[in-house]
Amino acid sequence: MSQIKKILRNLFLLLKIAWEEDKILLIGYFLTSIVSVTLLFLVYFFYKLMIDQVFRDLAANPSSILFLIIIGYLLAEYLSRFVTNTLNAFYFKFLLRAKFQNALTRRFMEKLAALDFAILEDGAVRNLIAKVADTFTWRIHANLQMINYIVYNFAAIIVSFVVAARFGYGYFILLFLFATPLYFIRAKYGNIQWSIYSSQSDKINYLWYLRYLFTEFPTLSEIKIYGLKDYFLKKVKTIQNEIVDKYKKPIIKQTLISSLVSLVLPVVIFFALKDFTAGIFTKKHSLGDFTFFLNALYTFIGQISSLLVNFGVIYENNLYVEDFFHLQYLKNKVKEKKRALKLQKSPKEIRFINVSFKYPGGEDFALKDINLTIKKGEDIAIVGHNGAGKTTLIKLLFRFYDPTRGKILIDGKDLKNFNINDWYGHLSVLFRTLPNII
């Protein structure tokens, strides 16, 4: 039940994002799905009328009614294809997908920019970010698309039941019951695949790193000069094969079980058609009724199977969607006070008083009992061997972390009391590798 609540909550959040991005596109996307189902059954109905009218005209003189029915059939067929293929599957789907993905990308980037280094340097968080970066542009949108498919599925199933009211619900209910296991199969193996993906996050991160080496000119130059291309490509292929092999066994098992379950459906269909054709010979049903029933039956079968599979896909994708929202709701470890101070001008003095710092999860102090005073206008160079704590000291000055012990004072006031973004306005930094963003 808790998993269902998570799925419903996440679907609501996805719809909320899409709604905030473009209400008209979202409404149009779902509305055209419902209209396309109505038009599809209108096509079936005109087809039934056309067949019945042909048999009537065979027994009498041809009438103009058949001509009008054919026009109605062709018009319904055209509208059905236009709404389904042009409006829903192309116009609304394409534009909504583009805007939705843009919104997700902005939220992803905004969240990363808002997280402090105390969070960003956590290994578990870095793995989470890597997983989200790898999947959010397609897994999350896929769930929005699945919602649209489910709207279509439900609309088609409801209309099929309305049609079935004339012929009896029995076989429709049996088909639903026999198709239900497909959902549980998809959900079970979707969970297995997500578990495999999560367990392979270190390897996936390494693949991303290797790909990065081939896209950066300095590292690519070294790869070419030192003849490392084959070495790295061999490592990439080995890791890729290891990941694929992990997925192979559960996918084969899922395919076999799904195939066995699907074998039951033709048996139910056989008895349904056998009973209905018997009704034709007793004049209970017309041949047009038979085509209408057959179309409704196969639509029902297809949509029930599709509905259950789509629920399974949503369940599977939700495991990745959950990662996205988990990242969105991460809280910073460095807290800023509600009424934080702002510096009106550049500080005259920065003081480290008995500052000690230990990285989260670390056993040893990176800095211990540091006392340092920097006056305005002074040129200070911090020199030391690797691991001496030079970078850590700068991180504390930038308040990427708070000291484990001691204080950092800015003109006599604790750095913790200042607005972080305002404090950044008084600092500048030149990194060893400067990205080409200006």
From TrEMBL:
Intracellular or extracellular location(s): Cell membrane
Primary location: membrane
Membrane-topology descriptor: Multi-pass membrane protein
GO MF assignments: ABC-type oligopeptide transporter activity; ATP binding; ATP hydrolysis activity
GO cellular component: a single term: plasma membrane
Keyword Transmembrane helix: yes
Keyword annotations from UniProtKB, A to Z: Membrane, Transmembrane, Transmembrane helix
UniProt-recorded name of the protein: ABC transmembrane type-1 domain-containing protein
Keyword Protein biosynthesis attached: no
Domain ABC transmembrane type-1, residue spans: 27-316
Residues annotated as transmembrane: 24-47, 59-76, 146-163, 169-185, 256-273, 293-315
